[in-house]
Amino acid sequence: DISIAFLQALDIKNAVVCDLLSAAGARAVRYAKETNAAKVYANDASEAAFKNIKENSKINNVGDKVVASCKGANAFLASKRKKFDFIDIDPFGSPVYFLDELAKWKTLFFPGPMSAKAEAMKQQGIDFTYANLGSNKYRGMEQGATSGSGMVGGC
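Given the sequence above, the corresponding structure tokens read:
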């Protein structure tokens, strides 16, 4: 699985990982066993999935590393205003429903640039949403740019 290999390549010591849509917890178990993760938060909105995450963590002897949760993805992220080193989002369908909540995280970790960007958006009459604020579409607006650079990532 590419996400496991990617996290291994990052080699983050004591990583805190979020498996946002964990289902049965298979990937959460793999993060706990195959990477340097100190904690893996495995979340799913399904009560059956939540029970499976707990059982699979126990069976695979990673119950001390895997923390199971049963919330909707947005509610889980909103309740965990903590730093994750890695967030795995592997939805069945489109991830678009989670973009607004993820953009809020960007404002937590880059408050200065995001405040300046929000002010610039307001001055230009652009609707304030966390999705717009976190989007690269308006990247550099606080420095006078009229549209984003088209680059992926960054503030």
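Helices lie at 2-10, 26-34, 47-59, 73-79, 99-109, 111-123, 130-134. Try to locate this feature in the token string yourself.
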